[in-house]
Amino acid sequence: MRSADVLAAVLDSLESRDVALFTTGMISREAYRIRDLPSNFYMIGSMGLLTAVGAGLAMCSPRRRVIVVEGDGSALMSLGNFALVAHEGLSNLVHIVVDNESYRSTGGQPSITRTIDLAEVAKACGYRIVHKVAARDDFGSALLRCYRDPGPAFLLAKVVEATEDEAPRVDLEPPIITERLRRFIQDTSGATNLA
Amino acid sequence: MYTPDKLVLALKRKGFRFFSGVPCSLLIDVLETIDHDPEITYVPAVREDAALGIASGAYLSGQRSGILIQNSGLGNIVNGLTSFNFIYHIPVLIVATWRGYQGRDAPEHILMGKIVLDLARDMGLEATVITEPIGDSVDKATEVLERDRKPAALILPPNIGRS
Asked: What's the pTM?
């Protein structure tokens, strides 16, 4: 399973009011390349900040599904946010970590998720739903289980990287990314999520 | 009326209903006032950068938001401010206490107390040291948020914020 497979599956699964946030580096770039939506938020800096941003969004939009997609490096940087998400009981938050056990965007240096299991961290913190998958065929059904019941949900996706072309940088200006998402949230508030 | 109440009232008057933060002893009364106010949401954060992220997420959701931190925490949000909030035009009000004010405090606060205004300025973070009337200070900081869509700071010296 490659990160592009995970991102494609996530983007395919989004429903009309869902918001998806993607961490800095290759994850944002690949998501942008696969399918850009006004409800997508791409981080281009501030590694480690994304889950907190998603948590704040989830707190203020409790009837909207918020999906956070970060890498293992980003997750390790802000492990405290696992505790925060679980403590706040954010039932509308789906926290996905694309774990390639390396810092891919800066030359592939190894990360410590070779020995540290982030799914166990999520479980220990008290996420309601926790899944760990390594095979492409398993990811889709695990994702649906994360969506089906109240969360917070954590999904650890172990990936290997193919040596394919690097996705180009996200060429949207960051203030546009902000305004686009704010407008999307405003325009889609009031409607309720269809079951 | 005690100063912490005046500060919270001034913030509410400018539409702030959502805060995150990490406590400082100089914020005890402000946090308690907020805790007793059902109209304000306060989310305790694990670290100041998480508080900034949470408040930023609240802004994306359409809320006016701020964080309540100690000036030491300003050091923990430099990267978030410089590579996220300023770049993405996400305004968050940063209410930071001024430990090490005038060089009088425990040793761990002295250096940050000395540099806090310079640090803010070097980041392009407009910092207003709070004075009476508190409403004017809050108005000034909020105007930066509205006009420039970028974060602004309110700095609370020790004589403000504790009754």
From this structure: 0.95
